[in-house]
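Field reference: sequence -> structure
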Amino acid sequence: MRRSRPPYEGRRFVGDRRFMVVHDLDAEAREVCGCSIDFIPLGDVATFEPDELWEARRAGFEPCPHCGLNA
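Structure field:
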């Protein structure tokens, strides 16, 4: 689920710099052991311009295994 508050600001792809993982907020897994997007410290949140998976991958982020990203 996309979030409108900073630093997310409606973006689809959000990275966690601690683990170099990118999450898809449109396909976020909310179950136990799923995505931990809400627990990323604000200073470790990465967003991408353009807001595309390929840009996150170019920046060195790997897709979250829980988000169903198959790129």
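Note: Strands lie at 13-16, 21-24, 45-47, 62-63.
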